[in-house]
Automatic annotation (TrEMBL):
SUPFAM superfamilies: Bet v1-like. It comes from Cryptomonas curvata. This is Activator of Hsp90 ATPase homologue 1/2-like C-terminal domain-containing protein. Coiled coil: none annotated. It holds the Pfam family AHSA1. Residues 44-157 form the Activator of Hsp90 ATPase homologue 1/2-like C-terminal domain. Belongs to the AHA1 family. It comes from the Eukaryota. Residues 1-29 are annotated as: Disordered.
Amino acid sequence: RPKKPPAKMAQVNRAPPPPPPKSDGAGGVGMVQLHEEFSAKCIDIFEALTVTSRISAFTRCSDTVSDARPGGRFALFSGQITGGYEDVIPAEFIRCKWRLSDWPDGLFSTVRIVLHELGEHEGCRLELLQDNVPARAIEAVERQWKERFFNAIKVAFGYGAVTGAHRQLFSGV
């Protein structure tokens, strides 16, 4: 009687390869992943990111538009950043389409922001994931979030210590 060939063992714990990045005509796309802690409640940070008057306060731009509901639009920094809200859960979650004005026509990234309370009087943590960012713009987008959003919110509303290199602008010559 002939021997049966050994059964092939199933391969487990192997993730499928990631899909190839889409091209924007200038080197593909990538992802931005950031987190930031604030000395504020989740609702305070949510409102700072979605309420027109609060956004205008930290951006110092009077032409800010923000209609924070599914299907609502936003325009920040005189139209340099535009997009639309897809999902909004007050004090918890924001998902939106987002783009810089110099990106190729029709290219939008998807931003997901999750807010977590850290405990009584301990503030909150913001986690941001932004995908479909043109590869050439990843560093600029990270800088936008850190300086023009997170640190600006902290300065405008007193929601924590400012972090990052721009603190050093006035130290030394």
